[in-house]
Design goal:
It holds the Pfam family ThiS. The protein has about 80 residues and is α+β, with helices and mostly antiparallel strands. It contains three helices and seven strands. It has a single domain, classed as Beta-grasp domain (Ubiquitin-like (UB roll)), CATH 3.10.20.30. A hairpin with a 2-residue loop joins strand 4 and strand 5. Helix 2 packs across helix 3.
Length: about 80
Amino acid sequence: MAVGILFLGPLRDIAGKTMLEVDGPLDWHGLLAAVGPRVAEQLREERVNVACAGLVLQDKQSLMAKDGDEVALLPPVSGG
């Protein structure tokens, strides 16, 4: 099994893909390595959130995804 990483909004454009599968378990450092330097730079920004298994993490650096989990990378939301 694997962990699915879902790129949303502008992060999808930066990554050049919608989804990536990596071997689990996956922690914060593994996530940064898996997504490449341009997306990793964005993830370090406070306004970008990470959800794991449907729950937005209060501390994204505490990420610990296991096989079968989906990790969603959530760009900042703009409104008007």
